[in-house]
Amino acid sequence: EAHDYGGNLAVTVNVYDFPAKKQRMFSETIALIRETDHMGTVNINIPANQELTSGKEKKFVTIQADFGGTVVENIVLVSSQSGYIFIQTDKPIYTPGSTVLYRIFTVNNDLLPVGRAVVISIQVPANWGPRHTPGKTQGETKRLRQRKRLWKGQDCRGRKAKKCVEP
To answer: Structurally, what CATH architecture does the domain formed by 9-78 represent?
Structure first.
């Protein structure tokens, strides 16, 4: 975006490794023009051989936008996962010893249903959290699952309900 700019403006977007900025992974130039209100989009594609998704540690890249001598820079976390998971429970507040029913909705970045299997892993510290009982697929869709959880010994009153069902 180039607010209140009078003419057309060429912007070069570069993506570098972080923190060294020694390797340029992507580069593209876009023209911000008056007809589009000086707005534009660049789809960034980083080759798979860059190994940004290997290992469990977080990976970052540096994104630079060069506006003819003025450089704007931002550090961005790289994620190989795309989409959202929505968790719905049948209780706004958990009561110790009660059964909590929940459903998981998986959608992509456009908020459309994900049409493939999704593995959900629930991790809790030892001696804390639920006894997990797998449920059955509900309705006509395989991406909507309902499962029972029994949380024992923990009081979630006063906390957000989401905190009581998150791994």
So the answer is: Sandwich (2.60)
